[in-house]
Structures are given as C-alpha cells and as structure tokens.
Amino acid sequence: MNGHMITTDELNAHLWGAADILRGTADASDFKNHIFGLLFLKRLSDVFDERRQKIIDDYVKSGTSVKEATKIAETDADEYTRGSFFIPKTARWAELMKHGENRAEQIDKALRAIEDQNSAYLEGVLAGVNFNDERRFGDAKEMDAFMQRLLTHFDKVRLGNRNLAEPDVLGNAYEYLVERFAETAGKKGGEFRTPKEVVRLLVELLAPQEGTRICDPTCGSGGMLIGCARYVEDHDGNPQNFSLFGQEKNYGTWAIGKLNMLLHALPDAKIEKGDTIRGPRLLDGGRLMLFDRVIANPPFSLKDWGHEFAEKDPYGRFTRGVPPKTKGDMAFLMHMVETVNDKGMVGVVMPHGVLFRGSSEGKIRKALLNDDFIEAVIGLPPALFFGTGIPASILILNRNKPKPRRKKVLFIDASPEGFYLERAARNQLRAEDILRIVAVFRTYADPSAMDKQIVAIADEWMHSAELHRDRQLARVSDDAVAKKAIEVEFADRQADIGLSVAGVRDWLENGTALERFASVVEMTEIADENDYNLNISRYVDSAEPPPELDVAEELARLREVEKKRNEAEKQMDKLLAEIGFRG
User: Fold this and answer.
1) Is the pTM of this model over 0.70?
2) Per the domain annotation, does 496 fall within a domain?
3) Fewest CB within a 10 Å sphere: which of 142, 214, 249, 404?
4) Which domain holds residue 85?
C-alpha cells in the first residue's frame, strides 16, 4: 500500500487488524491506547518524511547544495510548520524498523522523544502509553514477537498527506476505532464516545458559526468539538477562525482527545485535563472562561461528583442550589450555564431524571425556568448510547432567546418507534430523524414554516456534501479509481438527503403528526399547572389517536350483529325443544 491512495474503508480495516493482533493480551480499554500510539507515531513520521523532502527540494531549487539542504531538513525544527512536527532521528519509523530486539523499549523511547521535542502540543499525551510492559505482553521474547507483528502491520501503510484520499481519512479512521472500542468495552465505552449521530444532532441544534468560542467541559475523545469544527467549515466558515476548548478528567481519555485534535488538523484546540467540578482549568484571570457555545454529554448520575466542594464553590456555580450528593447531573449543567456568555447557547445530553426529580434538583430546575434559559427539551429514542439503556434527553438552553420564544419551552418527543433505526446492538438516528428534529426546533413547531425549513436544511446538507466532494477530488487529481469512489460516495449522500426530505414530508402529511411530536408550552402552564415538572409526556401526547368512527356505519354493523344473535337464539331454542327441554 506504500504508493497507494488509501481510502477510509481500507484504513479502517487495516487499523482494526492491529487490534486483532493484540486481542487476547489486553481488553479494549487497554489496547486502544497502544494502537492509537502507534497510529500517531506512524502518521507523524510519514508526514515528517514528506515535509523533509519538500524542504530539501525547495532549498535545492533556491541554489543550496543537496548536502546543506539535507542538513537543514535534518536539524532545523523551525522548518516544520503547522500540520507537521519535527521528529528526532531515533524516533523515526525507518529507525524503529531497523531494531531486531528490544522493540517495545525503542517504541517507548520514540514516543517520549517526540513528546519532548514537541511539548507545546504533546506534553503528557504520549508518555502514558507503555509498550515495554511484561505484565501485559509477556516476557522479553514474547513482547518482541508482538511488537514485530505490530510494526510490520503498520509498516504496510503510508500515512503521509499524499497517501490519504481526503484530508479527514485518518481522522475518520480514528473515530471508527474509538467507536469500535466503545462497542467492545461495554459500559466503559460511554466514557469516551458519544455516537456520531447524537453529536451531529447536537451540533445542528447549536449551529456554531465562524468566530465563536466553543467548549465541551467533559470532552472525552473530543468528538463534539470536532463536530462543531466540521460544521463551521461545511457552512463556508474559516476553519482557523474559531476556538475549541475542552476538559477531561480521565487521563487516558484526555490523551486520546488531544491526539484526536491533532489528527483532525486542530492543533490549537485547548484540551485541559482535570475534574471540571472540583478543578475547572478553563479560566481567565481566575474566573471561569465564557463561551458562545457549550456542548457536552456528561457522565449520567455520577455519584462522586464533588458535592463537598460545591457547597463552597469559589466560582459561584451553585447559587441556584446544590445538586444531590449522589447525582451529579445538575452539577455539570450548572457549570455549563455559568460558562456561557450573554448571547450563548448550551446543548447537553441528560438523563430524564433531571426533568422531574424534586428536592434540590427541582429547585434548580425552577430557577432555570424562571430565568427563562430553557429553550427546548428533546426526548431521544431508547438504547442510542454505548453500554447503557438509560433513557436520555437533550436540553437546549439559551441566554438570548429570540423574542417569540421567550417565556416558552419547546418539547419534542422523538422516542416512539418510527423515529429511529432499530438495531439489535444499539439503535441509531437516521438523517431523516435528525432532519425532523432540527426542522421542528428551528421553526419552533410552527407548521406553516416546516416545509420551507426542511428544504433549507437539506440545501445546507447538500452544500456541505458538495464541499466535501470537491475537497476530495482536488487531492486525488489523476487517480481515476479514487475519483470514481468519491463520486459514488457523493451520490449516496445526495440520495440519502433526498430520501430524508421525502420521509419527513410524508410524515407531515398526517394532520396530527406534528402535534403528536412536539408542543410549545407557555411558562405559566409549566409553573402553575405542572409545578415546574418538565416530563415530556405531560406536554406531548405521542400516542396514536383512536380511529374516527362513522356513527351510522357502526350502528348498522351493530344492528347486523344483533340480528345474527337473535337468529342464533331461535335456532338454539328449536334444538332444545326437540330434545324435550322447555325454558
């Protein structure tokens, strides 16, 4: 594959093959870090080789000797600009492949050398991956055999820029691996992966724009931040003109998130490690930083979330109330509310319990409603998330609601059958389902505006697909096979968008479909009639209405049944009389 333009599917299969080599020596939560470490090492080394050759060629063209140009490329780290890193000679892939023994030790040394050389971006990211571990990989001989197989496996692919069919092939493959690991890791999977369709839905609802500051305070592997970046770029925004921030408590997941940003060409994203509640790291002059968009999927009902800290929180996040000691959902929500600016929005995945639980959570909910921050409550389909069947919802909060939406809340029930793709392992939202929810949110369930909005969203999606196709085609230039694959992929996306539009329009043709899916509720009804309870079923009756009956037709049917009953009684009396029975 060294001279081959590699596609996403090919790279996905190859990387999962590396997991097969390690399977049996460690579980998914362990070996993912080793595969990611080698993937990153190979990628950096291949990009370095490309950049090194270009530096040499450019200097030679300007009159420098080959010897001097090579020396510059080998030693001047300043020549390696955005998108590439200077790799010390001992850490380069070709050098690793020369070692006939102690391979695990050499890999560890290479990772640390790269981190030391590029500490501005990589400090603490690679040091936690330990290949030279006899407890995991066996004695020195067994370990060397494993490492040889891994190195040989990765050596079969070139991961330089000119070898990738599109800029995001590697990032997409990385996301594929994270999702596969989440599927095999059971309950642990949710700690570092939110399904991509849920990410897409949240991003579409928040619609981040060029120039915005975006934060995920429980960012995991960074999928939501990357989704926001893609949205900006796919809507003709400058991919360099927005800022991404995140914080993650789990050290290993934080490292994966940092790598994910780099693999998606987002090296300036600021991803901090630490406990968001006990020790927020995104600060400005000792105060919490403020953002235009805050997006998150915090851990559901976390028991040890920092209750003892919240009561004396120096950042003033819990003035509306302190959440229960054993349920941290509202703690994360309070943090998000206090880190969004006066014109900003929050989009967060929450368990349904936050909608109706009482005590301190009820007090917090009441305060948020009285402050008119809650714009929408969306009930999601069941079993969407890795490793948990807990029903989930999305809350959209807005500190600057449009005037027509003030003192109102939009409720959407997207949980009934028919609004998602039912699968054995895990249900999924289809493009049609996302389109339906986003259109209803943007119109605030105004039936007169729905069709126009459906078309507008579909046009946005089509434009994004065209941009994606054009970026890919520009990279493959003379590769006819790759061009054909790109056009086929675009045609599939185009068809999917068309089918989604048709599906939502068909759904709307049922006169009661929208009112059984969504409802805009006045704050007075929520407060006075429902005591600030946000349980969706109180406001949206998603049950199918009973069929309308034709009274005359039903009476005629009843008379016919009565006639047959009377005839049966006469026949029974006759039979009884024949056997001598008298009533």
Assistant:
1) yes
2) no
3) 404
4) 8-173
